[in-house]
Design a protein that fits this description.
Structural class: alpha/beta
CATH superfamily: Glutaredoxin
Order of helices and strands: EEEHEHEHEHEEH
Strand order of the largest sheet: 3-6-5-4-7-8
Distance between the termini: 43 Å
Helix content: 25-40%
Largest sheet: 6 strands, mixed
Oligomer: single chain
CATH class: Alpha Beta
CATH architecture: 3-Layer(aba) Sandwich
Radius of gyration: 15 Å
Number of strands: 8
Number of helices: 5
CATH topology: Glutaredoxin
Shape: globular
Number of domains: 1
Length: 169
């Protein structure tokens, strides 16, 4: 049985539906509080750089993270569960296949509204949204954004990861 509650623009809160998890901002906030640091990656199915990051960069990064201090939340922004599953199946990522469910058609304008709303609710008074995907950021457990730029490779990991001892190597 799936229980859903309507929320403004950003999401529908649902309990687990099969192996997929649909999250609202309260769910994301609760997950952020579970570790001292959280890397959050919002992506869409139509974004070619997102697919490359899912298959190459994020698996490299997760191998280097100290999982006792930092977690990775990979959040798809798409209503197309089949496409999300297909893309995720090509990646070696072990993180849960979270989705941010939103209202409206599965197009850029709806994705944009959902991501923007989610970021504004999670990180009020912090300018994160730059009107493009993917969105990749590092936050602490108090939801203070520490870094908001996607690394293209392991060599370009944010200095904050190194400085705070968040890497195992």
């Amino acid at each position: 049985m799936i229980l859903c509650f309507l929320l403004p623009l950003s999401a529908i809160q649902c309990q687990e539906a099969g192996s997929k998890m649909e999250l609202d901002t309260a769910d994301i906030s609760a997950l952020i509080k579970k570790k001292p640091y959280t890397l959050i990656y919002y992506w869409t199915t139509w974004c070619v750089p997102c697919r490359k990051t899912l298959s190459e960069t994020l698996p490299q990064i997760t191998k280097s993270l100290d999982s006792s201090k930092v977690q990775l939340l990979v959040i798809a922004v798409s209503a197309d569960e089949k496409a999300v599953s297909e893309i995720r199946s090509k990646s070696t990522l072990k993180s849960p296949p979270y989705r941010l469910k939103f209202f409206g058609p599965d197009i850029w304008l709806s994705h944009k509204a959902a991501i923007k709303s989610s970021l504004e609710e999670l990180f009020p008074d912090q300018q994160i949204w730059n009107n493009s995907v993917p969105v990749f950021l590092l936050t602490n457990e108090n939801q203070k954004v520490l870094y908001k730029k996607l690394p293209s490779s392991l060599e370009h990991l944010p200095p904050l990861l190194h400085e705070n001892g968040l890497l195992v190597n």
